Amino acid sequence: MASNSEGFSTRAIHAGQDPLQWTHCSVIPPIVMSTTFRQDAPAEHRGFEYGRSGNPTRKVLETCLSALEDGKHGFVFSSGLGASTVITCLLDSEDHIVSGDDIYGGTNRYFQKCLSKQNIAVTFVDATDIKNILNGINPNTKMVWLESPTNPLLKLVDIKEATEAIKKINSSIIVVVDNTFLTSYFQLPLNLGADIVVYSLTKYMNGHSDIIMGAAITNNDDLAAKIGFLQNAMGIVPSPFDCAMVNRSLKTLELRMQQHMKNGLAIAKFLEKHALVEKVMHPYLPSHPQYKLALKQSSGHSGMVSFYLKGDSQKFLKSLKLFTLAESLGGYESLAELPSIMTHASVPEEAREKLGITNQLIRLSVGLESEKDLIDDLDQALKACQ
Ligand SMILES: Cc1ncc(COP(=O)(O)O)c(C=O)c1O
Protein backbone atom coordinates (compact mmCIF):
# COMPACT_ATOMS: atom_id res chain seq x y z
CA MET A 1 0.00 0.00 0.00
CA ALA A 2 1.22 3.50 -0.78
CA SER A 3 1.92 5.81 2.14
CA ASN A 4 2.13 9.59 2.21
CA SER A 5 5.95 9.34 2.14
CA GLU A 6 5.71 7.93 -1.38
CA GLY A 7 5.73 10.02 -4.54
CA PHE A 8 2.60 11.66 -5.90
CA SER A 9 1.98 9.27 -8.79
CA THR A 10 2.73 6.22 -6.63
CA ARG A 11 -0.01 7.34 -4.26
CA ALA A 12 -2.35 8.20 -7.14
CA ILE A 13 -1.90 4.70 -8.56
CA HIS A 14 -1.78 2.63 -5.35
CA ALA A 15 -3.39 4.40 -2.35
CA GLY A 16 -6.67 2.64 -1.56
CA GLN A 17 -6.28 0.30 -4.56
CA ASP A 18 -4.83 -2.85 -2.88
CA PRO A 19 -6.17 -5.87 -4.85
CA LEU A 20 -6.12 -7.98 -1.66
CA GLN A 21 -9.11 -6.06 -0.29
CA TRP A 22 -11.30 -7.98 -2.79
CA THR A 23 -11.69 -11.79 -2.59
CA HIS A 24 -11.21 -11.96 -6.39
CA CYS A 25 -8.07 -9.74 -6.17
CA SER A 26 -9.04 -7.57 -9.14
CA VAL A 27 -6.18 -5.20 -9.90
CA ILE A 28 -8.53 -2.42 -10.95
CA PRO A 29 -11.10 -1.73 -8.20
CA PRO A 30 -14.52 -3.13 -9.13
CA ILE A 31 -17.55 -0.90 -9.70
CA VAL A 32 -19.91 -2.08 -6.97
CA MET A 33 -23.42 -1.09 -8.04
CA SER A 34 -25.31 -2.82 -5.22
CA THR A 35 -27.37 -0.34 -3.21
CA THR A 36 -27.52 -2.63 -0.18
CA PHE A 37 -25.24 -5.13 1.57
CA ARG A 38 -26.01 -8.42 3.31
CA GLN A 39 -25.72 -8.26 7.08
CA ASP A 40 -24.43 -11.14 9.25
CA ALA A 41 -26.97 -10.30 11.96
CA PRO A 42 -29.25 -7.27 12.44
CA ALA A 43 -27.01 -4.15 12.41
CA GLU A 44 -23.88 -6.36 12.05
CA HIS A 45 -22.21 -5.74 8.69
CA ARG A 46 -18.78 -5.94 7.07
CA GLY A 47 -18.18 -2.21 6.54
CA PHE A 48 -21.08 -1.40 4.23
CA GLU A 49 -24.83 -1.46 4.82
CA TYR A 50 -26.54 0.94 2.40
CA GLY A 51 -25.13 2.64 -0.72
CA ARG A 52 -25.79 6.22 0.37
CA SER A 53 -23.94 5.78 3.67
CA GLY A 54 -21.00 3.98 2.07
CA ASN A 55 -19.92 2.15 -1.08
CA PRO A 56 -16.69 0.19 -1.74
CA THR A 57 -15.92 1.97 -5.06
CA ARG A 58 -16.52 5.36 -3.44
CA LYS A 59 -14.30 4.42 -0.51
CA VAL A 60 -11.41 3.55 -2.87
CA LEU A 61 -11.64 7.04 -4.40
CA GLU A 62 -11.97 8.79 -1.02
CA THR A 63 -8.88 6.97 0.29
CA CYS A 64 -6.88 7.88 -2.80
CA LEU A 65 -7.94 11.55 -2.66
CA SER A 66 -6.97 11.93 1.00
CA ALA A 67 -3.57 10.31 0.32
CA LEU A 68 -2.92 12.80 -2.49
CA GLU A 69 -3.86 15.70 -0.25
CA ASP A 70 -1.67 14.55 2.67
CA GLY A 71 -4.99 14.38 4.50
CA LYS A 72 -6.66 11.88 6.82
CA HIS A 73 -10.32 11.93 5.73
CA GLY A 74 -11.80 12.30 2.24
CA PHE A 75 -15.46 12.57 1.22
CA VAL A 76 -16.93 12.80 -2.26
CA PHE A 77 -20.19 14.42 -3.33
CA SER A 78 -22.29 14.54 -6.46
CA SER A 79 -20.86 17.96 -7.47
CA GLY A 80 -18.37 20.58 -6.30
CA LEU A 81 -21.26 22.76 -5.18
CA GLY A 82 -22.69 19.72 -3.36
CA ALA A 83 -19.41 19.54 -1.40
CA SER A 84 -19.65 23.29 -0.63
CA THR A 85 -23.28 22.87 0.49
CA VAL A 86 -22.33 20.14 2.94
CA ILE A 87 -19.38 22.16 4.30
CA THR A 88 -21.56 25.22 4.97
CA CYS A 89 -24.06 22.94 6.73
CA LEU A 90 -21.43 22.63 9.47
CA LEU A 91 -22.66 26.11 10.47
CA ASP A 92 -25.77 27.18 12.39
CA SER A 93 -28.31 29.89 11.69
CA GLU A 94 -26.87 33.36 12.46
CA ASP A 95 -23.29 32.22 11.94
CA HIS A 96 -21.23 34.32 9.56
CA ILE A 97 -18.77 33.58 6.75
CA VAL A 98 -15.98 35.78 5.40
CA SER A 99 -15.32 34.90 1.77
CA GLY A 100 -12.89 36.05 -0.89
CA ASP A 101 -14.71 38.29 -3.38
CA ASP A 102 -13.22 36.75 -6.53
CA ILE A 103 -14.58 33.20 -6.33
CA TYR A 104 -16.44 30.84 -8.66
CA GLY A 105 -19.74 32.50 -9.69
CA GLY A 106 -21.82 29.49 -8.62
CA THR A 107 -20.32 29.55 -5.12
CA ASN A 108 -21.07 33.28 -4.95
CA ARG A 109 -24.69 32.62 -6.05
CA TYR A 110 -25.07 29.81 -3.49
CA PHE A 111 -23.77 32.10 -0.73
CA GLN A 112 -26.01 35.03 -1.71
CA LYS A 113 -29.23 33.28 -2.75
CA CYS A 114 -29.32 30.10 -0.64
CA LEU A 115 -27.29 30.63 2.53
CA SER A 116 -29.05 33.94 3.20
CA LYS A 117 -32.32 31.96 3.51
CA GLN A 118 -30.73 29.94 6.31
CA ASN A 119 -29.82 33.19 8.02
CA ILE A 120 -26.11 32.75 7.38
CA ALA A 121 -24.57 36.02 6.18
CA VAL A 122 -21.48 36.20 3.97
CA THR A 123 -19.12 39.18 3.83
CA PHE A 124 -17.07 39.32 0.63
CA VAL A 125 -13.58 40.82 0.91
CA ASP A 126 -10.52 41.18 -1.29
CA ALA A 127 -8.66 38.31 0.39
CA THR A 128 -5.37 39.06 -1.37
CA ASP A 129 -4.82 41.50 1.51
CA ILE A 130 -5.03 39.59 4.80
CA LYS A 131 -6.07 42.79 6.63
CA ASN A 132 -9.36 42.72 4.70
CA ILE A 133 -10.07 39.16 5.87
CA LEU A 134 -9.36 40.06 9.48
CA ASN A 135 -11.48 43.23 9.28
CA GLY A 136 -14.39 41.11 7.99
CA ILE A 137 -14.33 38.82 11.02
CA ASN A 138 -16.95 39.46 13.72
CA PRO A 139 -17.90 37.49 16.86
CA ASN A 140 -20.31 35.31 14.80
CA THR A 141 -17.75 34.43 12.14
CA LYS A 142 -17.37 30.65 12.02
CA MET A 143 -15.85 30.12 8.57
CA VAL A 144 -13.45 31.78 6.14
CA TRP A 145 -13.78 30.70 2.49
CA LEU A 146 -10.80 31.17 0.20
CA GLU A 147 -9.94 30.41 -3.40
CA SER A 148 -6.32 30.69 -4.48
CA PRO A 149 -5.74 31.27 -7.35
CA THR A 150 -9.04 33.09 -7.67
CA ASN A 151 -11.53 32.54 -10.45
CA PRO A 152 -11.34 34.19 -12.99
CA LEU A 153 -8.67 36.81 -12.15
CA LEU A 154 -5.99 34.40 -10.87
CA LYS A 155 -5.11 36.49 -7.82
CA LEU A 156 -3.46 34.69 -4.92
CA VAL A 157 -4.14 34.53 -1.20
CA ASP A 158 -1.26 33.74 1.15
CA ILE A 159 -2.97 30.69 2.67
CA LYS A 160 -0.42 30.08 5.44
CA GLU A 161 -0.24 33.68 6.63
CA ALA A 162 -4.01 34.17 6.32
CA THR A 163 -4.75 31.00 8.30
CA GLU A 164 -2.28 31.88 11.05
CA ALA A 165 -3.73 35.38 11.40
CA ILE A 166 -7.35 34.10 11.41
CA LYS A 167 -6.59 31.46 14.04
CA LYS A 168 -4.92 34.09 16.24
CA ILE A 169 -8.23 35.98 16.34
CA ASN A 170 -10.35 32.87 16.88
CA SER A 171 -8.87 29.38 16.63
CA SER A 172 -12.30 27.79 16.10
CA ILE A 173 -12.92 29.57 12.77
CA ILE A 174 -12.93 26.90 10.05
CA VAL A 175 -10.69 27.86 7.11
CA VAL A 176 -11.84 26.32 3.83
CA VAL A 177 -9.75 26.47 0.65
CA ASP A 178 -11.19 25.68 -2.78
CA ASN A 179 -8.18 24.08 -4.49
CA THR A 180 -9.94 23.28 -7.78
CA PHE A 181 -7.63 25.41 -9.97
CA LEU A 182 -4.35 23.84 -8.79
CA THR A 183 -5.19 20.31 -7.54
CA SER A 184 -3.23 18.48 -4.86
CA TYR A 185 -0.41 18.07 -7.39
CA PHE A 186 0.51 21.77 -7.27
CA GLN A 187 -0.78 22.95 -3.88
CA LEU A 188 -1.56 21.37 -0.49
CA PRO A 189 -3.72 23.79 1.55
CA LEU A 190 -3.99 21.43 4.57
CA ASN A 191 -0.20 21.61 4.94
CA LEU A 192 -0.50 25.42 4.80
CA GLY A 193 -2.90 25.36 7.77
CA ALA A 194 -6.36 25.11 6.17
CA ASP A 195 -8.97 22.96 7.94
CA ILE A 196 -10.86 21.73 4.88
CA VAL A 197 -9.92 21.51 1.20
CA VAL A 198 -12.84 21.54 -1.21
CA TYR A 199 -12.79 20.46 -4.86
CA SER A 200 -14.86 20.51 -7.93
CA LEU A 201 -13.49 17.14 -9.09
CA THR A 202 -15.35 17.94 -12.31
CA LYS A 203 -12.29 19.96 -13.33
CA TYR A 204 -8.60 18.94 -13.32
CA MET A 205 -8.90 16.07 -10.84
CA ASN A 206 -11.12 14.14 -13.26
CA GLY A 207 -9.70 16.04 -16.20
CA HIS A 208 -11.79 14.46 -18.98
CA SER A 209 -14.89 16.71 -18.89
CA ASP A 210 -17.19 13.72 -18.44
CA ILE A 211 -18.04 13.65 -14.71
CA ILE A 212 -19.59 16.15 -12.29
CA MET A 213 -18.31 15.49 -8.75
CA GLY A 214 -16.90 17.25 -5.69
CA ALA A 215 -14.80 16.43 -2.64
CA ALA A 216 -13.94 17.65 0.85
CA ILE A 217 -10.74 16.56 2.61
CA THR A 218 -9.66 17.28 6.17
CA ASN A 219 -7.18 16.22 8.85
CA ASN A 220 -9.55 17.19 11.65
CA ASP A 221 -11.27 14.10 13.15
CA ASP A 222 -14.14 16.13 14.60
CA LEU A 223 -14.89 17.92 11.31
CA ALA A 224 -14.55 14.58 9.47
CA ALA A 225 -17.16 12.95 11.71
CA LYS A 226 -19.55 15.84 11.03
CA ILE A 227 -18.94 15.86 7.26
CA GLY A 228 -19.36 12.06 7.12
CA PHE A 229 -22.66 12.37 8.98
CA LEU A 230 -23.86 15.12 6.59
CA GLN A 231 -22.76 13.15 3.51
CA ASN A 232 -25.18 10.40 4.51
CA ALA A 233 -27.86 12.58 6.12
CA MET A 234 -28.08 15.06 3.20
CA GLY A 235 -27.54 12.39 0.55
CA ILE A 236 -25.50 14.44 -1.94
CA VAL A 237 -23.53 11.36 -3.06
CA PRO A 238 -22.07 10.39 -6.46
CA SER A 239 -22.71 7.12 -8.31
CA PRO A 240 -20.21 4.22 -7.99
CA PHE A 241 -19.60 4.41 -11.76
CA ASP A 242 -18.65 8.10 -11.56
CA CYS A 243 -16.35 7.33 -8.61
CA ALA A 244 -14.57 4.69 -10.69
CA MET A 245 -14.11 7.18 -13.54
CA VAL A 246 -12.53 9.82 -11.27
CA ASN A 247 -10.39 7.18 -9.57
CA ARG A 248 -9.08 6.12 -13.00
CA SER A 249 -8.40 9.74 -13.97
CA LEU A 250 -6.28 10.39 -10.86
CA LYS A 251 -3.73 7.88 -12.15
CA THR A 252 -2.60 10.40 -14.80
CA LEU A 253 -3.07 13.58 -12.75
CA GLU A 254 0.66 14.28 -12.40
CA LEU A 255 1.30 13.84 -16.14
CA ARG A 256 -1.70 15.94 -17.10
CA MET A 257 -0.88 18.79 -14.70
CA GLN A 258 2.72 18.98 -15.93
CA GLN A 259 1.49 19.34 -19.51
CA HIS A 260 -1.26 21.85 -18.55
CA MET A 261 1.44 23.94 -16.84
CA LYS A 262 3.77 23.77 -19.86
CA ASN A 263 1.08 24.67 -22.41
CA GLY A 264 -0.55 27.31 -20.18
CA LEU A 265 2.71 29.13 -19.48
CA ALA A 266 3.74 29.06 -23.16
CA ILE A 267 0.39 30.63 -24.09
CA ALA A 268 0.61 33.23 -21.31
CA LYS A 269 4.05 34.25 -22.62
CA PHE A 270 2.77 34.40 -26.21
CA LEU A 271 -0.23 36.55 -25.21
CA GLU A 272 1.89 38.87 -23.06
CA LYS A 273 3.91 39.88 -26.13
CA HIS A 274 0.87 40.35 -28.40
CA ALA A 275 -0.08 43.88 -29.43
CA LEU A 276 -3.83 43.17 -29.16
CA VAL A 277 -3.58 41.96 -25.57
CA GLU A 278 -3.86 44.53 -22.79
CA LYS A 279 -2.80 42.39 -19.83
CA VAL A 280 -2.24 38.69 -19.04
CA MET A 281 -2.88 37.03 -15.68
CA HIS A 282 -0.83 33.90 -14.89
CA PRO A 283 0.79 33.42 -11.45
CA TYR A 284 3.98 32.00 -12.96
CA LEU A 285 4.64 35.04 -15.15
CA PRO A 286 7.20 37.29 -13.42
CA SER A 287 4.85 40.21 -14.24
CA HIS A 288 2.16 38.76 -11.93
CA PRO A 289 2.10 40.98 -8.81
CA GLN A 290 2.18 37.88 -6.56
CA TYR A 291 4.75 35.87 -8.54
CA LYS A 292 6.92 35.35 -5.42
CA LEU A 293 3.93 34.07 -3.43
CA ALA A 294 3.12 31.65 -6.28
CA LEU A 295 6.64 30.22 -6.04
CA LYS A 296 6.35 30.00 -2.24
CA GLN A 297 3.00 28.27 -1.81
CA SER A 298 2.56 26.18 -4.95
CA SER A 299 4.83 24.04 -7.08
CA GLY A 300 3.27 25.06 -10.41
CA HIS A 301 0.15 26.34 -12.10
CA SER A 302 -2.57 24.66 -14.14
CA GLY A 303 -3.76 25.60 -17.64
CA MET A 304 -5.82 28.58 -16.44
CA VAL A 305 -4.89 31.85 -18.15
CA SER A 306 -6.98 35.02 -18.14
CA PHE A 307 -6.36 38.14 -20.22
CA TYR A 308 -7.84 41.48 -21.22
CA LEU A 309 -8.28 41.82 -24.96
CA LYS A 310 -7.98 45.12 -26.83
CA GLY A 311 -10.07 43.87 -29.77
CA ASP A 312 -13.69 42.67 -30.10
CA SER A 313 -14.10 39.81 -27.60
CA GLN A 314 -17.19 38.33 -29.29
CA LYS A 315 -15.37 38.22 -32.64
CA PHE A 316 -12.29 36.71 -30.98
CA LEU A 317 -14.25 33.91 -29.32
CA LYS A 318 -16.22 33.13 -32.47
CA SER A 319 -13.02 32.97 -34.54
CA LEU A 320 -11.35 30.31 -32.41
CA LYS A 321 -11.15 26.92 -34.11
CA LEU A 322 -9.27 24.63 -31.72
CA PHE A 323 -10.32 26.28 -28.45
CA THR A 324 -14.00 25.51 -27.86
CA LEU A 325 -16.25 28.28 -26.59
CA ALA A 326 -17.65 26.65 -23.44
CA GLU A 327 -17.92 26.96 -19.67
CA SER A 328 -15.95 24.76 -17.27
CA LEU A 329 -12.22 24.02 -17.20
CA GLY A 330 -9.59 21.45 -16.43
CA GLY A 331 -10.25 18.94 -19.21
CA TYR A 332 -7.73 17.70 -21.78
CA GLU A 333 -9.40 19.91 -24.40
CA SER A 334 -8.80 23.66 -24.56
CA LEU A 335 -11.73 25.94 -23.76
CA ALA A 336 -12.29 29.70 -23.92
CA GLU A 337 -15.05 31.75 -22.33
CA LEU A 338 -16.26 35.24 -21.44
CA PRO A 339 -16.75 35.18 -17.63
CA SER A 340 -18.88 38.38 -17.55
CA ILE A 341 -21.74 36.70 -19.40
CA MET A 342 -20.95 33.02 -18.85
CA THR A 343 -19.41 31.55 -15.66
CA HIS A 344 -19.74 34.76 -13.63
CA ALA A 345 -23.06 36.11 -14.95
CA SER A 346 -24.62 35.33 -11.56
CA VAL A 347 -22.20 37.73 -9.79
CA PRO A 348 -24.06 41.06 -9.35
CA GLU A 349 -23.06 43.57 -12.07
CA GLU A 350 -21.70 46.11 -9.59
CA ALA A 351 -19.46 43.47 -7.99
CA ARG A 352 -18.27 42.31 -11.43
CA GLU A 353 -17.31 45.85 -12.41
CA LYS A 354 -15.48 46.40 -9.13
CA LEU A 355 -13.53 43.18 -9.59
CA GLY A 356 -12.65 43.87 -13.23
CA ILE A 357 -14.76 41.09 -14.77
CA THR A 358 -15.43 43.16 -17.88
CA ASN A 359 -16.57 42.16 -21.37
CA GLN A 360 -12.89 42.34 -22.42
CA LEU A 361 -11.82 39.66 -19.95
CA ILE A 362 -11.26 36.25 -21.55
CA ARG A 363 -10.61 33.08 -19.53
CA LEU A 364 -8.77 30.18 -21.13
CA SER A 365 -8.55 26.63 -19.88
CA VAL A 366 -5.50 25.48 -21.79
CA GLY A 367 -5.69 21.76 -22.57
CA LEU A 368 -3.22 19.11 -23.63
CA GLU A 369 -3.15 19.65 -27.40
CA SER A 370 0.14 20.47 -29.15
CA GLU A 371 1.45 23.84 -27.99
CA LYS A 372 2.08 25.18 -31.51
CA ASP A 373 -1.45 24.40 -32.69
CA LEU A 374 -2.94 26.21 -29.69
CA ILE A 375 -0.77 29.29 -30.24
CA ASP A 376 -1.57 29.32 -33.97
CA ASP A 377 -5.29 29.21 -33.16
CA LEU A 378 -5.06 32.13 -30.71
CA ASP A 379 -2.93 34.06 -33.22
CA GLN A 380 -5.48 33.73 -36.04
CA ALA A 381 -8.40 34.62 -33.73
CA LEU A 382 -6.51 37.69 -32.48
CA LYS A 383 -5.91 38.81 -36.06
CA ALA A 384 -9.61 38.34 -36.81
CA CYS A 385 -10.86 40.43 -33.86
CA GLN A 386 -9.15 43.74 -34.73
C1 LIG B 1 -13.34 26.91 -8.45
C2 LIG B 1 -14.64 26.15 -8.52
N1 LIG B 1 -15.19 25.68 -7.40
C3 LIG B 1 -16.36 25.01 -7.40
C4 LIG B 1 -17.05 24.78 -8.58
C5 LIG B 1 -18.37 24.04 -8.55
O1 LIG B 1 -18.16 22.73 -8.98
P1 LIG B 1 -19.27 21.83 -9.74
O2 LIG B 1 -19.53 22.48 -11.06
O3 LIG B 1 -18.60 20.49 -9.82
O4 LIG B 1 -20.47 21.82 -8.87
C6 LIG B 1 -16.51 25.26 -9.78
C7 LIG B 1 -17.22 25.04 -11.05
O5 LIG B 1 -16.90 25.62 -12.08
C8 LIG B 1 -15.27 25.97 -9.75
O6 LIG B 1 -14.72 26.46 -10.87
Description of the structure:
The chain has 386 residues and is an alpha/beta fold. It has two domains: 8-250, Aspartate Aminotransferase, domain 2 (3-Layer(aba) Sandwich), CATH 3.40.640; 253-384, Aspartate Aminotransferase, domain 1 (Alpha-Beta Complex), CATH 3.90.1150. The protein is built from 14 helices and twelve strands. It has helices spanning 8-14, 56-68, 80-88, 105-114, 130-136, 159-169, 183-186, 221-234, 240-250, 253-272, 291-297, 313-319, 349-355, 371-384, and strands at 73-77, 96-100, 121-125, 141-147, 174-178, 196-200, 214-218, 277-281, 304-309, 324-325, 335-337, 361-365. Strands 1-7-6-5-4-2-3 form a seven-stranded mixed beta sheet, sandwiched between helices. The protein has a five-stranded mixed beta sheet with strand order 8-9-12-11-10, with helices on one face. 47% of the residues are buried.
